[in-house]
Amino acid sequence: MKDIKDFENRIICGDCLEIMGDLPDESIDIIITSPPYWNAKNYESTTSRSKMPKKYSLEQYQKEMTDIFFQAYRTLKKGRYCCIVIDGVTVEKRYYNLPMIFQTFMEEMGFVYHIPLYWLKPLGSQGMWKSGATWSLRCLKPLTYYPNQRLEHIMLFRKKEPKECEGQTDLKYGELKDWLDNVWVIKTASTELHKCPFPVEIPMRLIKLLSFVGDAVLDPFNGIGTTAVACRESNRRYIGIEINPDYCKVAEQRLANIPKMRFDSIDDASHPPQVETQAKRGVA
Ligand SMILES: C[S@@+](CC[C@H](N)C(=O)[O-])C[C@H]1O[C@@H](n2cnc3c(N)ncnc32)[C@H](O)[C@@H]1O
User: Fold this and answer.
1) How many domains does the chain fold into?
2) Distance between CA atoms of 153 and 173, rounded to whole angstroms?
């Protein structure tokens, strides 16, 4: 097993199951991620090296996710959160409730389902999901109804036993007030460079609400580095793992446009951060 410092502030290209196996126990302060949505989305478009087979069963998916999130449980510190952005998928005209599957295996592992948040995409901004609704409209007859899917779950799981967690916060009163509602209306991010990135606003809110300045944040399905961008902008350490080398390159490019963090090692986290200039967020 390696030292956590070997992973910090890096985009690591590879299979998260393998790479997380090298992370020390209880070394991560928060996990923020959006895993692949079973086979509803094809991430292979820009690479020939993606690990996802063309078609694999729900059981295989469930097993793969359980193994990966077991590593999440092992590497997360006690009392800290694993935040999962996920929603159901319709495959061959049948709806599969992925949040329910995640809740089951996460609870079996020992996580406590803290609270569901919902990401509501403003009208007209639901991106890829609108194809079913477009088809419905084209048919214009009863029994062919597929509505736009504008809601996604943001599932917050906590690793017990909760400890009194101490640290420096950058959460402002006005932000907390604005985010107290459990439906977050946030625009989708551009899908120019990735098929389904989440907007920076989502990891940014979770980071401020559920972590301290200087904390280590893991995203095992890093995509084009949205969580890492939020970390750079909020003085957290990021560890981003992504299997698609093209997405890793985009993530590196986005991060290159953002000023370096103040903290270079975990020991520096006790010192107050300097004021950073507002960084350009790149894609999202
Ligand atoms: C829903 S997307 C995440 C997008 C990300 N939140 C963003 O904003 O860019 C899921 C990502 O997981 C990656 N992925 C799939 N299987 C993986 C694995 N075993 N290890 C690491 N990454 C994987 C896919 O290539 C895809 O980019």
Assistant:
1) 1
2) 25
- How far apart CA 228 and CA 154 sit, in angstroms, is 18
- Region 102-120: what's the mean pLDDT? 97
> What confidence tier does 259 reach under pLDDT thresholds 50, 70, 90?
confident
**Residue 273 within any structural domain of the chain:** no
Ligand 1 atom with least separation from CA of 52: 16
Domain presence at residue 280: no
The region of weakest confidence among 95-104, 131-140, 225-234 is 131-140
For the Cβ of 223 lying below 6 angstroms from any atom of ligand 1, the answer is yes
Look up the CATH number of the domain holding residue 242.
3.40.50.150
Instruction: Say if 160 falls within a structural domain.
Output: yes
Q: 66 or 276: which carries more pLDDT confidence?
A: 66
Best residue among 37, 155, 243, 255 to mutate for probing ligand 1's pocket (most ligand atoms within 8 Å of CB) is 243
Residue range of the domain that includes 32: 4-259
- Measure 29 CA to ligand 1 centroid, in angstroms: 20
Ligand 1 pocket test: which of 20, 22, 43 has the largest number of ligand atoms within 8 Å of its C-beta?
43
In a domain, 209, yes or no: yes
pLDDT at residue 164 tops 90: no
| Per-residue pLDDT, 109 | 97
Alpha helix segments (H runs only) across the chain: 16-20, 58-75, 98-109, 130-139, 173-179, 201-210, 226-233, 245-256
Contact 113, 157 (CB under 8 A): yes
In short, whether 198's Cβ falls inside 6 Å of ligand 1 is yes
